[in-house]
Amino acid sequence: MDAGMIRFLLRRIGQFIITFLAASFLLFAVTEFSPGTVASKILGPYAVSSQVDLLTEKLHLGDPLLVRYLRWLGIVAGVVENPLGDPTIGLGLSDPRGNRYVGNFGYSLMLKEPVVDVVGERIGYTVLLTLLAILVIIPVSLAAGVAAGVNPGRPVDRILSMGAVILTSLPEFVVAVALLLVGVVWLGILPGTSPMTQGGRWPLSLQLVLPVGVLVIASASYVLRIVRASVADTMRKPYVRTALLKGLKRRDIILHHVLRNAMIPPITVILLQINWLLTGVVVVESIFAYPGVGSLLLQAALFGDIYLVQALTLLALIVAVGTQLIGDLCYLALDPKIKLG
Amino acid sequence: MTRPRDHDYLPILKRDLADGKVSRRSFLRTATLLGLSAASAYAFADKVTGVPSEAQAQDAKPKGGTLRISTTVYDVKSPAIASTTAHPLIYSQVVEYLTKTGADNVTRPHLLKSWEPSADLKTWTLHLRDDVKWHSGRSFVADDVVWNLTRLLSDDVGSSVLGLMEGYLLNSVDTGKVDDKGKKIIRHELWDPKAIEKVDDKTVRLNLKAPQLAVPEHLFHYPAVMLYPEEKGVFGPGAVGTGAFTLKELNVSRNAVLEAKPGYWGEGPYLDRIEFVDVGGNEQAIVNALISGQVDGAFQILPDFYPLLKDNAALQYYQVTTADTSVVRMNLKNKPFDDAKVRQAFRLAVDPVKANQITFGQFSTPAEHHHVSPIHPDYAKLPEPVRDVEKAKALLAEAGYKDGVDVELVIQQNPPHHLRNATALTEMWKEAGIRAAIKVVPNPQYWDVWMTAPLGMTVWAHRPLGVMNLALAYRSNAAWNESAFANPEFDKLLDEAEAIPDPKARSARMADIEALMQREGPIVQTYWRNLISFYDKKVVGFAMHPTYMVFCNELAIKS
Questions:
Q1: Cβ-nearest to B77 among A92, A118, A295
Q2: Contact criterion met (CB < 8 Å) for B294 and A192
Q3: If B364 and its partner were Cys, which of A6, A108, B158, B360 is the partner (CB 3.0–4.6 Å)?
Q4: How far is B115 from B460, CA to CA, in rounded Å?
Q5: What per-residue confidence (pLDDT) applies to B56?
Q6: ipTM surpassing 0.90, yes or no?
């Protein structure tokens, strides 16, 4: 790795830390104006005020915002013990790693489990869903996009482009309901939800069909349109015309010259799709009861589960920064003219 | 051991049932409350009324199988601070209550063999069953009850049982300290050191500071399960209980797996295994799971989905009429609600029958603005409230609001029928000059302001007796008195009602209370909702419970 690359990576890590600190503080501040206190969320609406006050006192929740934020950062850094895990408070919260370790994001107020465990379990399912969706999205959208892009204005282009426009316009929940109606209610060949639990009459593989199907329809049609536009644009470039005039085979021109040059915009879009699939698939996960981080983020936000929202925000930041980094490296590989600036 | 003496009122009650002066339901409720065993009460009622009880008519149930029920799978580490009716679905199969209110709304002894109230209802002697053992093999004894009840009533634990029982078991103590915001720090302590008294290994006595009829019902409040003291109040997989099942696995927000425990002291269990499956908060997902057979039943189904499921040949429909409701409550600390005339105008301006129809249609019954349901044994029938817009306007003018009033009605985002009810009410109010803006807030935000908002809509769960809701919500300074209603006449009438075991005499007193609520009370209440669910037809023994409880030891699966 050359010095330029190391500087580039260090700069990216520095930007990430600053973004994380700013985002986490903003979230803390915003939560200050959100309904309910940490103590009242733990005890529920029917606890009397003396009980809520006592827990507030025990957890030092009356401290100023900055003090609480710094304490939270200390807990994440493993410098400060998490008071929620103190057995004398009697909430029954326990973390097998103890109350002080690096990466301690505290306890989810909603689920009463260590945040690290909650996110750890959910991220596995999200990665699985993302991988399966991407494995279908990339070949389908590339093949169809190239087919449409190299035949601009022809019937194949019109059919594929029109189909893609229609599917892109359909909201995910409409596609989901349509697939449910066909697969579950009419044909009865697929399960109506995907909780990814075994033991029922539906194997895990069939539980994945509908959520993956909706994601593929929602995403592939969009990527297809970008690929089609980029390929069609590249096909009009002078060097392609020159190659044609020089007598190169159309197939070779597409494979060796057009595709490589046409891939930069689609890669950006595909990476954005990965970003969305890993952290933002809220509708599909909710409709199909899929246990991923998207539905978890929605539940956590609605509940006001500050510690879980913080951890999921960090996760989203890591994924966003990570995909951007991968994108930059891909651009470098595809076009040597691009420099690390 | 000598048999406990029957309560003085029991012979009169039996005679009243024979003479047709009290209903079978009222008889069963009051007789069991007064300490008659459920079996004896049912046998007597069957003999007198000639109607056999369902329990006797049931066939032998098949054994084996796994039952899957869709519900929210919450963390249940600390049942004492459970805050929803979905929490006990899991833990109550393992750890049990001293009493049990059935789907028929009658409360019976459960871990108790019987209870015995004094004539003044201030001393309750609880007799424990002799045959109950913890899963560890140790007998269930009075020390376990004393430990659990004392713990539930402690400020440190944070249980809602405290708010329920503080009126008759606790004193509020001003510590003399103030918090950061200058608010007095109040703590609670048992009103008497012998308030919860161990008499012997199998007997506990509750010595109350005020008469209370609903002690057995309160012992079935959903956090009030008997935990194994050696586990210090922490529940989880492998936790020791007295129930028919043991918790094998708990994945919060995903699923919980329970397995039958051989040698259960009561009925069943017939099932080998129960799995509670969480399909998220999306109501449609619950319906999808039912349709595709991923679950055999659901915690509840919203009435909106009834048309989708009613013709499904594999599913059985269940419904129960309940005292579950939402009330629009006016907070008397805020103008214009400090004036009784304004409050009455708010009631007179609405038609409860129409509002009920708009809110729930066939899945509810109209209410009468007094928070006592026709299914409560202490309900008194009053003339139905009639909408009178002119009188409402006149009352507002008398109160000094001749141009009407502008108010804001705060409601929760969920359940969705709150918005339907609020819309119906605000449209009706308009004609009387009551201009109400609806403010929909996320649920947690509502619970922040439910005690203080000038006008809000609050859910009140089903409770088996009318006096229970009134005592919790409207007695001066009650823990959950969200309207700041403080009426000495109401308090006096309620005190008297709570001390009357006779349902006839109590309902006469309730008539006074209900009339007072309609005249001066702090609520506009237009519906009582039914709870509905669907279960696979292969499930045997299920009955929809008015508080969503499912007694899995009584359930079986037909092959």
A1: A92
A2: yes
A3: B360
A4: 28
A5: 47
A6: no
